[in-house]
Amino acid sequence: MRTFVTGSTGLLGNNLLRALLASGHEVVALARDSAKAQRLLTNTQARIVVGDMLRVADFAAALEGCQAIFHTAAYFREAFAPGADLDALDAVNVAGTLALLEAADRAGVTCFVHVGSGGAIGRKPDGSPGDEQTPPSTAQQANPYLRSKLRGDAAIAAWKGSGNLRVVEILPGWIWGPYDDAPTAAGKLLAEFTAARVPAVIDGGTTIVDARDVAEAMIVAAERGPDRERYIVGGRYVSMAELLTSLERLTSVRAPRLAIPHPALLAYAACAETWARLVGGEPLITREAVRLMHEKIALDSGKAERELGLRFRPLDETLRDTWIWRTTFS
Predict the structure, then answer these.
(1) What is the value of pTM for the model shown?
(2) Rg of the Cα trace of the chain?
(3) Distance CA 106, CA 84 (A)
(4) Under a CB-based contact definition with an 8 Å cutoff, are residues 116 and 140 in contact?
(5) Cα dihedral sign for 238, 213, 149, 9?
(6) Is residue 153 part of a domain?
């Protein structure tokens, strides 16, 4: 089928694009930056369309003839940084998504696979991993990025359309993998770790998933996912201590042994944010990230495993391939 991928130069979009092409599908790739797209996608057969989710009408004609849209683009750069751009979050993650839905419906697209966020799923009351129906915690709802994703989810659920467009949502955990050019928070953590600039262990953790596993789930969801169905694709829960230990085995860089108590870590993050503002850089860690990691949210991906046949590759394989790509191509 002919497919349309937003966010094609991002970590997930790039891996998805390559998986689609490997499966024999045609890919139209949306990218905001033409030069970046040429650099990252030049060795693929994707047709690059330059456009911005803030102006969907400018590229809507490229949707004609496509059977499926994979919407991976999102505004998240400021998600865990102080001074998050709330207007931009809503403009892209809510209004932009609705505009893309409308354009897809008008163009006769039959399937729309939307990437939400597993970060908007909390733990169940008994402490067990959350599923697709579990509401977010108070800390998750306080995060500007996650709030925008929740509003986007609500807008999609309320959207009617013509009835001809099947909409499926994928909710990934913390995505790692090759082609993390930006880099994302995962790539930044890897870079800081290998430079021995991670001073201590955070008391927390989250679910980590390989971008290629998320891409596979999206493709299967496009093929047979029911309309308005949601699938968590979270991977496995990993504590920060376990993650750093795994990176130590991989890179031979010594992981920190010092564990900072949560209140002290919040204070450290506040100082890091202040210093970053003064020098015009980005903090190694922020209070938002500390709070969410401290929640220790685990996700139940059982539904995707049962209905989409999804299987997750080992964490060490994901970390290895992320590291190889970063050291070889970045």
Answers:
(1) 0.94
(2) 19
(3) 33
(4) no
(5) positive
(6) yes
With vertex at residue 137, the alpha carbon angle to CA 133 and CA 143, rounded to the nearest 5 degrees, is 115
CATH number of the structural domain spanning residue 174: 3.40.50.720
* Inter-CA distances, 166 with 26, 80, 196, 222, 228, Å: 19, 32, 47, 9, 7
CA–CA distance, 200 with 203 (Å, rounded to integer) = 10
Domain that holds residue 228: 2-182+208-235+298-313
Number of domains in the chain: 1
Residue 66 in tokens:
């496509």
Instruction: Give the pLDDT confidence of 266-321 residue by residue, as tens digits.
Output: 998 899 888 888 888 777 788 888 888 899 999 999 999 999 999 999 999 999 99
What's the residue count for the chain? 330
| CB-count burial class (<10 Å; 0-12, 13-18, 19+) for 67 | middle
Q: Please report, for residues 55, 70, 170, 289, 310, the alpha-carbon distance to residue 12 in angstroms, rounded to integers and kept in the order given.
A: 22, 10, 12, 20, 16
Task: Specify the residue for token string 């908007």.
Answer: 120
Total Cβ atoms within 10 A of residue 100:
24
Query: For 84-104, how does the pLDDT look when each residue is reduced to its tens digit (9 = 90+)?
Result: 577 888 999 999 999 999 999
Which two tokens mark 99? 């505009």
